[in-house]
Design goal:
about 70 residues, mainly alpha, 2 helices, about 0% strand
C-alpha cells in the first residue's frame, strides 16, 4: 500500500489523547492511530450511505409491493 506523508496541526488535548491512546493500545506510531481513526470515520460515512440507499430501496419497494394484488387473497 502506498503511503503519503503529511503534516497536521491539532489542539494539545487531542495530541495528548493521541499519545496516550498509542501507548495504551501498543501502536508503533501516531500515524497508525490516525489511520485507525480515519478508517472508523470512513466506516461511519459508509454506514450512513448504506442506510440512505436502503431507505430508497424500501420506498421503491413499498410503492410497487401491492401492484396487481389488490383483489388477491392468499
Amino acid at each position: 500500500m502506498q503511503t503519503h506523508k503529511m503534516s497536521v496541526s491539532i489542539p494539545e488535548p487531542l495530541y495528548d489523547f493521541l499519545a496516550s491512546y498509542q501507548q495504551a493500545h501498543h501502536y508503533k506510531s501516531r500515524s497508525e492511530v490516525i489511520t485507525k481513526a480515519l478508517r472508523l470515520l470512513q466506516q461511519i460515512q459508509l454506514e450512513g450511505l448504506y442506510c440512505e440507499a436502503n431507505e430508497e430501496l424500501e420506498d421503491d419497494f413499498d410503492s410497487v409491493a401491492g401492484d396487481g394484488l389488490e383483489n388477491e387473497t392468499w
